[in-house]
Specification:
By secondary structure, this protein is mainly alpha-helical. It contains six helices and four strands; from the N terminus they run H-E-E-H-H-E-E-H-H-H. The protein starts with a helix and ends in a 5-residue tail after the last helix.
Amino acid sequence: MNRICTRILVCLALAAAATLLSGLPFASAQEEAIVLDMGGPSDQRPAVAFDHGLHMGLFECLDCHHQIEDGVNVLDEDDLTPGNPDVRCLACHAAADADIDLQKAYHRQCMGCHIDTRKTGEPSGPELCGSCHIPGL
């Protein structure tokens, strides 16, 4: 079985075990599914459904969430709390003076990771526009 599938299975098993043993519902820092919306017309490229739960099982939070200063991610992981608008991509990348606009930030972060993961020979996420931007969201 490849490493990604193994990681997914281990994470799911650990989450299920923790939930069963604690008697509490499984909690995460964010909803399992998030709709990434540019906020503009969606005629050509509609919003994207992002499976946050899947990604949380495969990666560390700071692999995606960042606050870059002098080339270093200085974001405090404790700031990654539900509802904190300061850690959302659009908090920095939607500003008129952003170094990288929101669309480029999403594409670099998401597709860049998918491409890098594919190059390692492991299963990866979509890389083509129509695979993420699905009408009807």
